[in-house]
Amino acid sequence: MKLVTIRYAISSNSFKRYVTTTVASDVSDATVAEILENQSNLQGVDIEQSSLRTYADSKYFANIIGYIGKPDQDELDTLKEQNEDYDANDLVGKAGLEQYMETDLQGKKGQRTIYVDSVGNVLEVESETQPESGHDLYLTIDKDLQIAVYNILEQRLAGVLVSKIQNIKQYVPGAHSSAMSIVIPIYDVYYALIQNHIIDTSHFTADDATDLEKSVQQRFDTQLDDAISRIMAQLQSDSPTAYCDLPSDMKNYMSYIVSDILMGEDQVLMKSAVNTEDATYIAWAKDETISLKEYLEYAISMNWVDVSGLDVKNSYMNSEEIYQVVVDYISSKLATDSNFHTMLYKYVILNDVVTGREVCLLLYDQGILEYDEETVGRLQNGSYSAYNFILDEIGKLEITPAQLALEPCSAGCVITDPNTGEVLACVSYPGYDNNRLANTMDSDYYSKLLTNQSRPFYNNATQEKTAPGSTYKPLSAITGLTEGVIDVNTYLPCAGVYKKVTPNPKCWIYPSAHGNLNVSQGIQHSCNDFFYEVGYRLGLNSTGDSKLDNDTSDGKSTQNYYSSERGIAKLQKYAEEFGLGDTSGMEIPESDPQISDDNSVLSAIGQGTNNYTTSQLARYITAVANKGTVYNLSLLDKVTNPKGKTVKDYTPEVKNKVTDVSSTTWQAVHEGMRAVVTSEHKDIFTKLNASGVQLSGKTGTAQQSQTHPDHGLFVGFAPSDSPQIAFAIRIANGYSSTFAAEVGNNVMEYYYKVT
User: Fold this and answer.
1) Other C-beta atoms within 10 Å of 208: how many?
2) CA nearest 102: which of 111, 89, 113, 91?
3) d(CA 46, CA 456)
4) Contact 426, 586 (CB under 8 A)
5) Distance between alpha carbon 476 and the CA centroid of its chain, in Å?
6) Is it the case that residue 628 has pLDDT exceeding 90?
7) Is there a smaller number of Cβ atoms within 10 Å at the N or the C end of the chain?
């Protein structure tokens, strides 16, 4: 393979003798000496030195900076359009700012005109031009702040996990359970260590496997044989069990067989052929009232199955023969399919075939944790439970949220200077080591990053979108006040349930109620009913306006004068003005935002179809902090030449100035956000408030589903009367905005040196 790679590299240079081909990189001093000592006998072979890109504190900055590597053909073609000097041996930006600023960072190649003999030995150097270094790029990022925020996020995520992990096997939601009721069974943690490949199960069969690893492998093999036997028994039974009546493990196995084995790369069950409107398909996929055997037999009769790509001797088979080929194919694939084996480990652990204590000991056997004789001894003799061990290790960050990839395991934070639009921190947790991808890529590490369920390549600050939740309420307040549907002296009632639209949405405090509130109090208490009413009033026509003083109608009778589309149009106008209609301006990949186009009542509390990244919320709250200046945020400060002279300045551009918002509106909104910190959540900000640092903020909780924890958000700025810093924080599936607010408090305590 190495020889083929070298031959391919030579051929890409059209076999030109004077164009070098790299045979090996990062060789030892001994190799260098050996080559140089025998160079007279090694025609055309030479040693060259080259520079390598290294990244300090890599995991904190990798999602911003990216990495460099050899260009693929498409990248090379694009770069050649800008500069013909690029070739296949160059190292170019592959991601992040390395890619965005490639032509500035690359520099210029030197040239040398030489005379050589027939075997490439240099006879004479006619002329030589020295290469030029690329430009230096300075960022707006505050390095220490970036690192501190990353560590704070990791600590808080670990804290959430510890608070939610319980010593149970499985979580079964009750009839009235909410997203806040979700807990993490300790058995999910044990399994996560295998599912996310922290424990390397492939090493269990290695020559140097430990006795424990060999024992676990032996038990697993027995369970694998048993699982395949049970599956085959169902597929060959005269009366197979309907999917809905199977035990949970068999349901998962059968689903995996269809989605990953049969509809995988071999396309035995052809996606393009399956008719999703067919009654039998519906009985399998939706109603779950038939067995996999019945579904496959029907699929064969409908020509949805293609076994021509399999190693079959007979091209002409009847339906029974085709079915047997499919069954044999399933059996052979399951025996070797690593993803199926990983799934099986869930039930191996749940059934205590492999115990939690053994999973913990495997962390030491494989060097994931540094060996500690006392701790290992206590685990082995049972005086230290696996449950308490796991909680302690997470608490010490010896096992990180990123490794477990449970919910929550990711977060993002963007901090700006509200007076300039410069980004002071853009943090995505988890990060990765871009040193292992730069220069010569570590392919195994790259593959692990791709399959890691905590998605380290995914920038949680600029790419992950969720509803903004109540962090949107300051914008709704500005919309309502500026459009005149409320004023600063308007008091709106909160009864816990809002009845002017159907179905009736509830305030978060239900079954209690907030009573009458003005707009500042509405923001302070994050009252849903208050902002439902704002969204409702934005959608009224003139008839509806005349009814406001005595309007107690229910949703059925308001349809003649309330229009959600009318309210949505007004909310959209202000969302656009505050920069939520497009990406934030940062020079790295960012997902497109989505301003809500449905249901003005729900949209006014940050639900509807509102969907934004943390970076977009940071730009919006930056404009709230500075009272209306919307910047195109920037990570770039300046570019200098090698002598230090500035050749480009990247002062952020002003995208828009919101000029139609009155001073009384700004005052009311800022007062409400200040009260969030000093009153509503004062227990979180005790130390900060006592220090004299004035912080204004807004919490937000965005619901995703009843089966996943809610997202927690917090936005804010400080000092309240003359902002120097603004920020947005999101903990994906972080249960509550309280945890995000605690991150905000920790960040501000660090920034202002309170702690």
Assistant:
1) 6
2) 91
3) 39
4) yes
5) 28
6) yes
7) N
Assess contact for 532 and 504: CB atoms under 8 A: no
700 — pLDDT class (breaks 50, 70, 90): very high
Which of 112, 111, 108, 114 has its CA nearest to residue 86? Answer: 108
pLDDT of residue 562: 86
Helix (H) or strand (E) holding 715: strand 711-718
Phi and psi at residue 122, in whole multiples of 5°?
Answer: -75, 125
613: left (phi over 0), alpha (psi -120 to 50) or beta: beta
- Among the residue ranges 22-26, 321-325, 343-347, 656-660, the one predicted with the least confidence is 22-26
Check residue 160 and give its pLDDT.
97
- Residue from 741, 48, 733 nearest 429 by CA: 733
Structure tokens at 600: 């003005």
pLDDT, position 441: 87
Please state the separation of Cα 58 from the chain's center in Å.
18
Name the DSSP class of 305: B
As a three-state string, the secondary structure of 375-398 is HHHHHHHCCCCHHHHHHHHHHCCC
CB contact at 8 A, 152 and 746: yes
Q: Determine if residue 629 is left, alpha or beta; phi over 0 gives left, psi from -120 to 50 gives alpha, anything else beta.
A: beta
- Residue 178 has a pLDDT of 85
Question: Hey, what are 231's tokens?
Answer: 């599956």
Question: At how many degrees (to 10) do helices 292-301 and 319-336 cross?
Answer: 130
CA-wise closest residue to 633 among 646, 624, 622:
622
- Mean pLDDT of the 372-386 span: 96
pTM of the model: 0.92
Kind and range of the H or E element at 462?
none
Cβ atoms within 10 Å of 446's Cβ, excluding its own: 14
Q: What angle do CA 23, 28, 29 make, to 5 degrees?
A: 120
CB 601 within 8 A of CB 555: no
What does the block give as tokens for 188? 């999910």
Query: Tokens 């494989």 map to which residue?
Result: 366
Residue showing tokens 């497009």: 582
Tell me what the pLDDT averaged over the chain comes to: 93
Tell whether the torsion through CA atoms of 323, 326, 327 and 328 is positive or negative.
positive
Q: Which residues of 2-35 are buried (b: 16+ CB within 10 A; e: fewer)?
A: eeeeeeebeeeeeeeeeeebeeeeeeeeeeeeeb
What is the distance between the terminal CA atoms of the chain, rounded to a whole angstrom?
Answer: 56
Asked whether residue 590 carries a pLDDT value surpassing 90, the answer given is yes
DSSP-H helix ranges across 101-172: 102-105, 143-164
Structure tokens of 694?
């004035």
pLDDT for residue 549 is more than 60: no
Phi and psi, residue 656, nearest 5°: -165, 150
What does the buried/exposed string (b/e) look like for 90-118 if buried means 16 or more CB atoms within 10 Å of the residue's CB?
bbbbbbbbbbbbbebbbeeeeeeeeeeee
Examine the pLDDT at 551 and tell me if it is beyond 70: no
Query: How far apart, in whole angstroms, are the C-alpha atoms of residue 654 and residue 704?
Result: 34
Confidence of residue 308 (pLDDT cuts 50, 70, 90): confident
Output the pLDDT for position 469: 96
